[in-house]
Amino acid sequence: MIEMFKWKKLGRVFNPQEVKGKNWIHEFAQAPSALIFDKFIRVYFSCRPLPDTNGQYVSYSAYIDLNRENLFDIINIAEQPILKLGDLGAFDEFGTYPVSVIRNGDAIMAYYGGWTRCESVPFNVAIGAAISNDNGQTFNKLGPGPVLSYSPDEPFILSGPKIRKYNGRWYLFYIAGKRWLDNNDKPEPVYQIRMAESKDGLNWTKHNKDIINTKLEENECQASPDVFFHNNRYHMFFCYRYSINYRGKEKGYRLGYAYSDDLIDWVRDDSKAGIDISEEGWDSEMISYPHVLELDNKIYLFYLGNHVGRYGFGLAQLQE
Amino acid sequence: MKWKKLGRIFDPTRHNLSNGCIEFAQSPQTLVFDDFVRIYFSTRKKDTNGKFLSHISFIDMDKNFEKIIRISANTVIELGDLGSFDEHGIFPINPLKVGDKIVAYTCGWSRRVSVPVETSTGLSTSDDNGSTFKKFGSGPVFSSCLDEPFLVGDSFVRIFDNTYHMWYIFGVRWANYPNEESPARVYKIAHATSNDGILWERDSKQIISDKLNADECQALPSVIKIKDKYHMFFCYRQATGFRKDHNRGYRIGYAWSLDLDKWTRDDNNAGIDVSENGWDSAMLCYPHVFHCNDKVYLLYNGNEFGRFGFGLAVLQDGYND
User: Fold this and answer.
1) Which of A86, A116, A143 is closest, CB to CB, to B147?
2) Does the pLDDT value for residue A313 go beyond 80?
3) What's the whole-number mean pLDDT along residues B215-230?
């Protein structure tokens, strides 16, 4: 049986609004994804410059390096975004968010959501892939198009990739759009968690199933399916919210939890997630985009607070 | 190849069309039945914002192509829901018989902000002999991939030796050109194979060489087997100025293959060109080749991408094979 997780919040690690001299990090530090080095932890995240005159954002991805001995000590910030935006008409012309990284031999692979803008709905997303040969400072795209694109049962919004390798196979957990709600001419998408498998990280076989059942409503939106293996079982932390009016405390993101013995069948049990919003402060209205990191015999949880990471990300530690 | 033009056989401006469409009968493609030929095409109506929406319709003709027996009165296939790949149009549709079933590959259109459109290929099936089609899922069956970044469409599927073959186009770039109001696209013809018509394998290679220049746009491949040789007709144009300059607009190109792998382009053998005057004097596009009553026919569009309908030509004996 699975014991309940119990997380102790350690505080906010990074506030992008405090970064000076980089206009492409004006605010937001979304969807943290960590990579362990000898002396530091490189935490990737997605950020935004100021919106354009139409109020529209683009998203870049970047990283900060945290002292391995003290994860609240930021020792380095990326000089530039790790990925270029796509060319005119490309799937990732207007954003590379979020990003998930993994080592593959001496290289580092990144899977990311590429954003385009549409006429009848605000955007669409597909999943791209890129490779780094300089320890993850910069990435080159494997092609101008997406590595995981739309299919009969996954018609739009393939996003939130989380890349994993278990037993020699590649697994991609991600979200797929199910429908757009009209919402009085302000369309809102409904998306839920999916997975695909691959032998090489390039050619993917989709399972074509929702793997996490809904709790709030049929149109519950789920994101950030972050999987780790611990005590002989697979665990997933993710976030979920209502489909409409979700930009505040009442219907905004919370963290959910599920476990699996085979990576295919998942049992949702949010009562074991062991973390919730704070009484006050930067994570008092919502918590989202969990990422679990095993480091030096401890287990940490990175997560976003209010406004889906507008004010950065924080850290919690699993209690024994 | 030598074609004898039989003239325009359908003018959409002279008929009442389903979905309130008024002009255009683009990319005619056939299903040959025992006693008639069904010709599907894409026609258009204006959206509330003045932009076009393409809908599928069809006519049935006798097998001598002398008489229109029927015009579809109902919606043949619904456009997609909000945010779907085929929300703003289906153009073209490629019907085919698979055993005793009828399926169709569709090219779905949805509008973008920085460029006008994106396309992907959908799959649909019919339970009523091709009168209406239901979609296999709300998303595309064949879409962009690493080396085919956008504008996957114009799929044309045939089964040869128990393998599904798809010829299609994919976009290689969008670019802003001087004197063009909006970004122009460049697309090329490619090939994929499948065992079931659903999961496809492809290598993202352009299979038809360029004739005009690297920006040549190639569209709507249509393939037919005659004796032991495969023949492909397609259309091609310059990337810019093609709407108004008759010399830069679509013409029909031709290639042949003995193995469905290597194609030799030989436009001199296409055997058809624009007329001196009339409905197909400025442009030839969207060819469709098919067998009917032991003859080989070519359906095609003329001026303004088929605004004024489609015509028919018949292959003359004695072509060089």
Assistant:
1) A143
2) yes
3) 97
For residue B99, count other CB atoms closer than 10 A to its CB. 6
pLDDT, tens digit (0-9, with 9 covering 90-100), for A75-85: 999 999 999 99
Give residue A318's pLDDT: 96
Q: Across the interface, do A145 and B175 touch by the CB < 8 Å criterion?
A: no
Looking at the domain B3-315, which fold is it?
Answer: Tachylectin-2; Chain A (2.115.10)
Chain B residue with Cα closest to A128? B146
Q: Do A93 and B114 touch (CB under 8 A)?
A: yes
| Helix (H/G/I), strand (E/B), else coil: A306 | helix
Answer whether B123 sits within 8 Å of A152, measured CB to CB. Answer: yes
Comparing alpha-carbon positions, the chain B residue that sits nearest to A153 is: B137
- pLDDT tens digits for range A101-158: 999 999 999 999 999 999 999 999 999 999 999 999 999 999 999 999 999 999 999 9
**ipTM of the complex as predicted:** 0.95
Predicted confidence at residue B179, as pLDDT, reads 86
User: Which chain A residues touch B149 with a CB distance below 8 Å?
Assistant: 86, 89-91, 143-146
Q: Which residue of B has its CA nearest to A181?
A: B82
Q: Where are the domains of chain A?
A: 7-318
Pick the CATH number of A7-318 from 2.115.10.20, 3.10.310.70, 3.30.110.30, 1.20.140.10: 2.115.10.20
Backbone angles phi, psi at B18, to 5 degrees: -65, 160
Residue A214 C-alpha, separation from nearest chain B C-alpha, in angstroms: 21
* pTM (global) more than 0.90: yes
